[in-house]
Amino acid sequence: MKTRFVPILMTLALTSAAAIGTAQAGLPAGERTATAARTVDVELGDDFFAPKRLSVVTRTRVHWIWMGQSEHNVTVVSGPVHFASQDQVTGDFSRRLRKPGVYRLICTIHGQRMRITVHRPAPKR
Ligand SMILES: [Cu+2]
User: Fold this and answer.
1) What is the pLDDT of residue 8?
2) Cys-Cys with 68: which of 11, 45, 91, 110 at CB 3.0–4.6 Å?
3) Is residue 64 predicted with pLDDT exceeding 50?
4) Separation of 71 CA from ligand 1 center, angstroms?
5) Are 53 and 24 spatial neighbours (Cβ–Cβ below 8 Å)?
6) How far is the CA of 30 from the centre of ligand 1 (A)?
7) Selection from 83, 79, 76, 51 nearest residue 65 by Cα
8) Which residues contact 117 (CB under 8 A, 6 or more apart)?
9) Distance from Cα 76 to the centre of ligand 1, integer Å
């Protein structure tokens, strides 16, 4: 049991660090916003996405990480581009989102949802 506990604590610590790094005042709870193209991690648990809502600039890479015990997938049900992961129990999946718009995603096995809004970066001055 001890051997299982350590990785879980490490994962929690990493998740908290990531949340602090992207926390922004004035945003609804659970909403994470990226203003520069980079990689944003999303946890895929039993049965939820965290965060559920994401707002990112074009060219951001979204990286889903399987954290639960059950089989899940990431499937776009509406949006500018459609894609889907395999059904998997562990591992990860990523996509770079180049087209602006609203992407609605679900796990087709359990129905948990998430939404990603992709917007163009603000013009440079
Ligand atoms: Cu699922």
Assistant:
1) 41
2) 45
3) yes
4) 6
5) no
6) 19
7) 51
8) 53, 54, 55, 56, 101, 102, 103
9) 13
Contacts of 106 (CB under 8 A, 6+ apart): 75, 77, 112, 113, 114
More confident residue, 101 or 121: 101
What is the value of pTM for the model shown?
0.73
Neighbours of 102 (CB within 10 A): 13
Ligand 1 centroid to residue 124 C-alpha, Å: 40
Distance 89 CA to ligand 1 centre (A): 9
Provide the pLDDT confidence category of residue 26 given band limits of 50, 70 and 90: low
Classify the phi-psi angles of 81: left when phi > 0, otherwise alpha if psi is within -120 to 50, otherwise beta. Answer: beta
